[in-house]
Design goal:
Blueprint: H1 2-23, E1 35-40, E2 45-47, E3 50-56, E4 62-68, H2 72-78, E5 86-94, H3 107-115, E6 117-123, E7 131-132, H4 137-155, H5 158-169, H6 177-185, H7 196-212, H8 217-234, H9 239-257, H10 263-271, H11 280-286
Parallel strand pairs: 4-6
Antiparallel strand pairs: 1-3, 1-5, 2-3, 3-4, 5-6, 5-7
């Protein structure tokens, strides 16, 4: 009974809190804003001659930064930018595009609901000289992820690197967009994401290794719960990664506390994902 009350209460809390949260996180910027300072909060992605990343301002508002790379030398230099770097930029603000066709994809609404981003910032002075290196455990993990992706790109054949980075680190930037569209049209885009199978395999190897060296089962399960957040971060923190990590944590807790999951509890968990088509739980169910 307690489990039922907890699940229903959690659902009602997010049902009421989500609209309030969205209403409290509007934009404080105006189109005339040109100079900004802040921190890179996503792995910079280079697609052809364009670099993009999420950029958080001191008062917590987040922008999507776009920069057009001019030369190959500049591209090589910009690959030294990392998550957590603090930069000073100049440029112009633009509103994200809206859907122009009936039932078309609304990029503006997607950015606002998924990342609370209201503006695209097109900068004209992106340089490593204008940035300082960040620090901390989270920054170090993202540095390790970014360096590992770069190492794979350098050491393995080009035709393999895109798929390797996708399945190991959840990074699709090395896969051609046309190929991604083909996977999506066939309903197979989930194959290009870190799924429960990948997370389960990694955790299973850790678990049996710990059991093999003499660690008791309960301790091994607690260790798995502790390393799940690190696995989520290293695989990019996408919705599919978080879903897989949460499900693995739930399984560990169910085994630890010998919890019986009833049909009613499972239905309540499903309802958590039906609040909004742009909500976090709904994305977890789709991806």
């Amino acid at each position: 009974m307690f489990a039922h009350i907890l699940i229903v209460s959690t659902y009602l809390f997010f049902l009421v809190y989500t609209p309030f949260y969205i209403s409290q996180h509007g934009t404080q910027l105006t189109p005339i804003t040109s100079m900004i300072n802040g921190k890179i909060i996503s792995m910079p992605v280079i697609d052809g001659n364009r670099m993009t990343f999420h950029f958080k301002l001191p008062y917590k508002e987040t922008l999507m930064v776009h920069y057009e790379i001019q030369t190959d030398i500049e591209q090589k230099e910009l690959r030294k930018l990392y998550y957590g770097d603090r930069c000073s930029l100049s440029g112009t603000l633009e509103r994200p595009s809206v859907n122009r066709n009936f039932y078309g994809f609304d990029y503006r609404t997607y950015l606002e609901h998924s990342s609370n981003i209201h503006w695209i910032y097109k900068t004209n002075n992106l340089s490593t000289r204008e940035c300082t290196r960040g620090n901390g455990l989270l920054v170090s993990l993202y540095h390790f992820r970014q360096n590992s992706i770069a190492l794979i790109n350098e050491e393995f054949p080009r035709e393999l690197t895109g798929m390797m980075n996708t399945l190991i680190f959840g990074d699709r930037s090395g896969i051609d967009e046309s190929l991604q569209e083909q996977y999506q049209s066939l309903g197979l885009i989930h194959l290009l994401a870190v799924s429960g199978l990948h997370v389960g395999t990694i955790l299973g190897l850790f678990y049996f290794l710990m059991i093999r060296i003499g660690i008791v089962k309960e301790t091994a399960l607690w260790v798995l719960i502790l390393i799940i957040p690190f696995i989520i971060l290293l695989t990019g923190g996408a919705a599919s990664d978080i879903r897989a990590g949460l499900m693995a944590a739930v399984i560990c807790l169910v085994v630890l506390f010998r919890i019986k999951i009833t049909t009613f509890s499972q239905l309540c968990m499903i309802l958590l994902g039906l609040t909004s088509v742009f909500s976090f739980p709904f994305l977890l169910l789709l991806l």
